[in-house]
Write a structure and sequence with these properties.
alpha/beta; globular; eight-stranded mixed sheet; single chain
Amino acid sequence: MLFIDRYGESAAAALDALSGGGYAARLEREIEARAGKPAVAVCSVDAAVHTALHLCGVKDGDYVFLPSFTFYSYIAAAENMGGVPVFLDCDPITRCVSPAALDAALLWAELQSKPPAAVVIDDAFGSVADYDVLLPLCKAHNVPSVELAVEGALCGGRRVPRGANCEFGVIGFDRTLYGGGGAVLCDERADAEMFTRARYSDGENHDYRLHNTVAALDLAAVAVAEKIAKRARRNLDAICRERENVAKPTDGDCGKYALCKPPCGVLALRAAGFNVKRPPCVHKLPRYASCAYFEHEPGYSVCESFADYCLVDMDMSVWARLRLSKMLKE
């Protein structure tokens, strides 16, 4: 096995973990210290989403409000619980859940006398949602909220670290920078542990425990998370200065991805060695054709307007940054 330790801390932590050190518990304490909320470490982001929705009380047939501009697996987690997805457009500035779309969807659900069991808000690709507007809407309708803080978790943010803005938080650790896995942030720590630790109980529970060695890698990387975010932000700022059709970072954005319309195609970018993703509009998938979708404005879908754009990972090597800069200037 080839092990490359980019920051000089992971190798020692991994070796110590193999000897039996309790890194999962240490990781939970570190997350709690940074986020100000109890944390329960789990084996994957999907497991964390499942746990958060369970704590929200999602049952078969309940509406679950979800962003459309996000990864498919988060929606699948709600769907597999029997939840009925209701999709929300994104805001043109933050690229996260649109307050206007959420307000319209809450009114629609109220008219049906069927409020959602949960509102899931994604800090989409390192951006930060406008929680100053979104959370009062959720509280006014007495609906629990879940923050997905997968890209740039625990760093950046406006005033509160990512993952700690809503009643429930989901953070994830990218396998390219960390060890993998994730964590649930919530006040109901005992309930979360009961659901994720496969202990005997009368209710549902799962074996979502995080492996000790993976937790060691995560813990070592958390210490340099802010450094990683600042480097990505510098890369994004440099690209924004050189190209007008790159979405500008918002206040608190960790700069994980650049949303840009490159002169060459996605295949060419990938061939050049970049991590490139297409902005997904989950509500456009055939299996969700019958699900409700609320636009940012009537007749204007923001996330669909990003169809010609791609997401370029800004946490790259110096060589890759130079190649991207050259391609954007051509």
